[in-house]
């Protein structure tokens, strides 16, 4: 068990930083990101926001790629994705 006094405050472990609120991290960073989603039918690639609040459809075949939830968007089964780089 890790006690609060056993942690180096200047170099916290990445697992702890990931679990913290976005404003309480050592360096503030958002939880959201952009991702490329590949359609399972026509293999077109569409850029989607991770916390999208609207339904995103494929431009080629009009298949639903992701649906909004209360937080992160839920990808349709069979769609592959990757996070966009900096």
Describe the secondary-structure layout.
Elements: H1 14-19, E1 34-38, E2 45-49, E3 56-57, E4 64-67, E5 74-75, E6 80-83
Antiparallel strand pairs: 1-2, 1-6, 3-4, 4-5
Report on the structure:
- By secondary structure, this protein is mainly beta.
- It has a domain at 31-86: Ribosomal protein S27 (N-terminal domain of TfIIb, Single Sheet), CATH 2.20.25.100.
- Helices cover 7% and strands 26% of the residues.
- The chain has 1 helix and 6 strands.
- It has one helix at residues 14-19, and strands at 34-38, 45-49, 56-57, 64-67, 74-75, 80-83.
- Strands 2-1-6 form a 3-stranded antiparallel β-sheet, with no helix packed on it.
- A hairpin with a 6-residue loop joins strand 4 and strand 5 (74-75).
- The longest helix is centred in the first third of the chain and has 6 residues, at 14-19.
- It starts with 13 loop residues before the first helix and ends with a strand.
- The mean pLDDT is 89.
Features:
about 90 residues, mainly beta, N-terminal domain of TfIIb, 3-stranded antiparallel sheet, 6 strands, about 5% helix, elongated, 40S ribosomal protein S27, zinc ion binding, ribosomal protein
């Amino acid at each position: 068990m890790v006690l609060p006094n056993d942690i180096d405050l200047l170099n916290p472990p990445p697992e702890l930083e990931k679990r913290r609120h976005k404003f309480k991290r050592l360096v503030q960073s958002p939880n959201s990101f952009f991702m490329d989603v590949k359609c399972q039918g026509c293999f077109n690639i569409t850029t989607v926001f991770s916390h999208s609040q609207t339904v995103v459809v494929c431009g080629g075949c009009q298949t639903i790629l992701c649906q909004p939830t209360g937080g992160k968007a839920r990808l349709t089964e069979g769609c592959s994705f990757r996070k966009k780089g900096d």
